[in-house]
């Protein structure tokens, strides 16, 4: 049997991170320039039911059965096999690679789960439809961080801009004007799990302090959906900056992210905010056009971003 490969893109949250965990709406888009890849190939010479996993980006080289029983990779195998009623996996070699920086808010764990689920189910002769891939990736996100909203796995599975409310049917986002975004990497590694759990602890002690902030983030996301739909870039940018201020109030930003947001605004961005789990990872800025994006990217690198990436969300008709 020839090798089977699959991939899934990175993602960024445009609006509503953290509040989305508390059932407020959020908006996320795929980042197609970066992706996670999985490849599986049968290994007929290996002892029966031996699966070898190589994941150089996390320094992993191991037999599947030697991984902790709750290791996300092992859980993905278990979930796929359970769904397919298969008790033994044929001997195989799996390789996981990724160009998505880890712990940066670009969805590396989700994209890896999606790509791996696709190759395993295809290898077993029953390629999962996207809904089933999404379910497995969501279950796996629960291991990565206890209370995921499901937005990361959904946007990486379907690779389309989404307007997302937890436990509600997914809605595609309509985009009236292309969104030219600059993604600035603060270079600070950050664990989404740690930030989500810290916020949950603070919220559980004083829900009255946090619920109104979540409400305001949710209102911003609702207005942003409309602005993006109408192609109103100026309003979309303003709302991004408002969202960033609310994330600062939620105490999930960092000095470095705040500095980069400020630098982007000084360089002419229409709006800027941190993106994802926060306390490190990435920030995003909305540019008027490609040329301005290049300028903003240069300014961000001069202001200390370790890397700046330009990505464009095309209009819904696919026009770039
Ligand atoms: C992480 O990309 C987004 C968060 O809102 C967590 C989640 O939605 O699961 C911080």
Can you characterise this structure?
It is a single chain. By secondary structure, this protein is α+β, with helices and mostly antiparallel strands. Helices cover 41% and strands 23% of the residues. The protein is built from 9 helices and 11 strands. It has helices at residues 72-83, 108-123, 130-144, 151-158, 192-205, 207-230, 233-249, 255-266, 290-302, and strands spanning 4-15, 26-42, 51-55, 60-63, 92-98, 162-164, 171-172, 179-185, 271-275, 282-287, 307-313. The strands form 2 sheets. Strands 1, 2, 3, 4, 5, 6 and 7 form a 7-stranded mixed sheet that branches. A 4-stranded antiparallel sheet has the order 9-10-8-11. α2 (108-123) crosses α4 (151-158) and α3 (130-144) packs antiparallel against α4. The longest helix has 24 residues, at 207-230. The radius of gyration is 20 Å and the shape is globular. The relative contact order is 0.17. The model has no long low-confidence stretch (mean pLDDT 95). It binds (R)-mevalonate. Residues 13, 17-18, 20-21, 105, 148-149, 151-152, 192, 196, 276-277 line the site of (R)-mevalonate (MEV). The site of (R)-mevalonate (MEV) has 14 residues, from α4 and α5.
> How many runs of DSSP E, i.e. beta strands?
11
The radius of gyration is: 20 Å
Sheet/helix structural class: alpha+beta
Molecular shape: globular
Detail the poorly predicted runs. none
Report the span from N to C terminus. Answer: 38 Å
Round the mean pLDDT to the nearest integer and report it: 95
Indicate the proportion of strand residues.
15-25%
SSE string: EEEEHEHHHEEEHHHHEEHE
Report the bound ligands by name, code or SMILES. Answer: (R)-mevalonate
Profile the largest sheet. 7 strands, mixed
Helix residue percentage: 40-55%
Tally of alpha and pi helices? 9
